[in-house]
Structures are given as structure tokens and as C-alpha cells.
Amino acid sequence: MMENSAGGRRDRFFSATGISDGIVTGPIRFRREGTAQVIGRTHGDAAVELDRAERARKALLSSYREEEQRARSAGMKEQAGIYLSRQMILEDEELRKFRDSLMELQRYSAEYAVQEAFAYAAWAISRSGDRLLSDRRKDILDVGKEYLARLRSIEESKVKVADKVAMEKPHPEKYILAAKDLLPSEILQLPREELLGVILKEGSFDSHAAILIRSFGIPAVIRCEELSGLWDGQEVSLDAEAGRVYLRPDAQLKAQLRKKEERRKETERILDAYRDRECVTPDGKKVLLLANIGDPAEIRIAALSGADGIGLFRTEFLFLDSEEEPSEEAQFDVYREAAAAMAGKPVVIRTFDIGSDKSAEYLRMEPESNPALGFRGIRVSLMHTAFFKKQLRAALRAAAYGDIRILLPMISDPEEVRVSRDILNECKAELKQEGKTAGEVQLGVMIETPAAVLCAEELAQLVDFFSIGTNDLLQYTCAMDRQNPTLRPFVKPYHPALMREIRMTVEAGHAAGIPVSICGEIASDEKKAPAFLDMGVDSLSVTPRRILPLKRALCELQP
Ligand code: PEP
Ligand code: MG
Hints:
Elements: E1 2-6, E2 9-15, E3 17-18, E4 23-30, H1 46-73, H2 77-91, H3 93-104, H4 110-127, H5 134-154, H6 156-168, E5 175-179, H7 184-189, E6 195-200, H8 208-215, E7 220-222, E8 235-239, E9 244-247, H9 251-271, E10 288-293, H10 297-303, E11 310-314, H11 328-341, E12 346-350, H12 378-383, H13 385-398, E13 403-408, H14 414-433, E14 442-447, H15 450-454, H16 456-460, E15 465-468, H17 470-478, H18 496-511, E16 516-518, H19 529-534, E17 539-542, H20 547-555
Parallel strand pairs: 4-5, 5-6, 6-7, 10-11, 10-17, 11-12, 12-13, 13-14, 14-15, 15-16, 16-17
Antiparallel strand pairs: 1-2, 2-9, 3-7, 4-8, 8-9
Bound molecules: phosphoenolpyruvate and magnesium ion.
């Protein structure tokens, strides 16, 4: 813990690394162990929630009974015993009473009550210090998890209604989420209307989780080592830009932080003047500034951001937590919406970059010992061609509504592009035969592996544009996992090798007459952007909130 003396006051704070902007004050809420999601806490009607909780419990109980019977008939005694002990957890009278009191007295939603009751029961066991009971603790958490899943799956429509009720309550309790780390899919599930900010113990700046948090504009810090010094319900002030978590902020500190936040918002208002301006540097170079998005909710944000288009639509985020493979129709709806919202401006749809930290449930991928070097991006699409074709067909159909372009991720071999182009042509022919309307699309590749840089001349003959993914290019060039916080002291975001690779890519692209963009996180660095332009980069694609600061910096460049 650190202390800061200011105006006779002593502010106590934890140091962390800021990954976004904004200052918020509110109670901490820890993500419960064993549950991936933060769940809507309040609800409208206790009777409805009690009934839902009970129906889900009974359904799970009867499936445990069936499993037990099945195991017994097959002579699997041990297995049967496991299901029997799970039934006993679900039938535990105390646990049920506690769950119900949370719904009746605290007015918690069924999901929140189940989560709290099971987390409490697990905690109570761990407090007993009995090592023999630690398996039981795991079982309780596991049953709690299955119970929640059951509650969601059988009651989906009502859950949504209950969530809506929670949102409409006059003062839903807002909180700052604290967790060891979060996966991209977990961030997409956070109830944003209740979320003030995020504090993570681990995490890294360029991870997909951090990218999502930034693009949603959630004030957040990572690498808050002293997270265990915080507790549920404790009030803190989080200054994301400064990378500080203030403990027990007094009225004076809160007022000071409020003023700082107002100044930040004032700067945002000033930036507004740049929204409809073209980005032209004082020496007359026109630069395209494009938006990176990963969620349909961001389509509108991108359209209002002052961007010249969407330069990177990370489509894999669309269906990460879905159990079903995304259908062509569902994808078509989203891509068409993006095309229409951008009104003729380009929309670059990156085909699914699944794998590594973005494992999709519906593909049931095997765990890998080295996922960053594993089954990822174009490799997944080429292995699952029916799945790939659905996406290409959806994009081609959406191209009838705007300037849709297709971008292939994780390319390391020109052959991958040739095969992808063949599949794309096949999709075009099929759509024509079926009498479905489709448009023309440009095809581009991500340059994010050293192999792609070294083959850039050949690749440039095969595609219409390049987009340099510096996040991955840096990790693969320097052999440093972008997810690994321990490597932080060694990571140089502007490593000379990376700069050389950008230059080589631009030269190869321009020699073949195709434009080159940068869409990794470093593209939004106002100080470095002029150097990228000097190298000949044609466009920069950044999180929507960085468009205006970047536009102002480039328009006002000092000669
Ligand atoms: C990159 O690698 O720089 C990139 C833009 O792609 P992602 O961050 O989604 O891997
Ligand atoms: Mg990448």
C-alpha cells in the first residue's frame, strides 16, 4: 500500500496499471470462485424468483438421480456415489433456507441467491481448516455452477425479464468488479448497466480482455497485486488513468477526483469538434482513421465515433459463449447492420480468429499445451470449411448493403490465402445459383506472424489490402506471450524488429499497389502515429474512443 500526502490529508492507495480512462467511486464486488459470470443482483418479485430457483433445483436433482441409477445399473459404484453426494448437496435444508432468505429478504435474483448461497457454503467449509473437507468444497462449487447453468437454460426468457426489472429499479446498486483475471467471454457477459469499473490482479495491456474493456469505455486497472487487501462491499475510488485504487476515500479526495473526471469529460467535449472533420496532417497527408470493434453494441459507437469506417470487426467475439455454431442468418443480420450503420464506409470483417485465449464452446476445441502457437485463426476456418463458408456467405450477402471487406487472421502461408480465395469463390457461385443477392468484397490478410512479413511480397499479389496486427506480430517476433504478465519488464511495444517489420510490410504492399493499415493497439499511440505515417502506413484502426484524440493529434501536428 502507498500513501500520498495532499493538502494535509493522507490518501492511501494501491498501485496498479491503468488500461483505460475514467474515475469512479463505489463498492467492490469480488467475482465469486466457481462462477464465471457476474449476475444481475436485484429483481422485482420474490415469489417468481423462489419458484424459478426451486424448479431449476428439482430439474437438476432429477437428472442427478437418473445419472445415479444409470451408473448403478452399469455397476459403476463410485460414479453412483458421486451423484448421490451431489443430490445431498442440493437437498441440504440449511443451504436451501439460506438461498430462500436471500431472495425474500435481500430481494436477490434467483441466480444471485444461488451463487451467494453456494459460495458461502464453500467458504464456510474452507474456514473449518479440515483438509478432508476440501473435496466437498469443490463439489459444492461444482454443483452451484451446474445449478446456475440449469437456472439459465430452462428459464431463459424469464431471466431476461428479471434482468430487465433489475435494470428498471430506481437505484440498482452499482459496483466495481474485482477479480484475479477475466476471459473475453466473461467480459461480454458482464451486466454493464451495473458495472462502474474493473480491478484485476493479473491481466495484460494487449490481451483481448483488456482490448474489450477499453472499447466498452470501462474504467479499469490490471496488475493490482494487493487485491487481497480489498473486501466485498468496501468503498474505493478507482482512477484508471493514474492506475490507482484509493481505499476509504474521504469527501475531500472524492471531490478532487470528481473535478479531475470533469476535466477529462471537458476534454472529450472539445474533441467533439473533430468528429466530422477529415483527418489531414498539416503537410496535407490524408489519413484514414478506422474503428476496431468486437461486439454488435459497438457498431453504433463506431458509427458515431468520427471514424472513416470499421477497420477491424473481431467477429469471433460475437458468439464466444454460444453453445450453438453461429448460423449464416444470425451473422448476416449483424454484418448487414454494420454495413448499413456505416453508410457506405468500409467495414472490414475479420473472419473468426478463434483459439488461444478465445476458445469457442460450440467448436468443442481440445485444450492445447501451447495455445498461442496452436489451433487458431485461419487454421480453424480451413479445418472447418462448412463453418467458414457460413461466415463468408453471410459477409458476401451483407456486401449488398455496403462496403464489406473480408480479412483473414493468423496467415502464415500464401497457400492459406489461395485456398481461402477458392472457398470464397465457391460461396459466390453457390449464392448466385441459389438466386441470393450478394455484393463484391475485397479480400485482405492480417500481417501478424513473422512468416507473413517475410512472405509479404507474395501475399500482396493475392489480396487487396494488408492490416498489420502488431499485438500478435510482437508476441511472435519476440517470442513473448502477450497474455503473460510476468514478461512485462521485457516487452518493448516498439521493438526495433517490429518497426522494421512494419516498414517491410508497407514496402511490399505499396510495391503491389495495395494499402496497408495497422490495427494493433499501438496504432492509437498519438506520439508514435506520425512515425507510422512516415513509414507510409495508409490507415490506422483503433478502439472507437481513441479516434478523436488521434484525429486531433494528427490534424494539429507541429511541423
Ligand atoms: C493483433 O494481433 O494486433 C490484432 C489486431 O488482432 P487481435 O488483437 O485480435 O489478435
Ligand atoms: Mg491478432
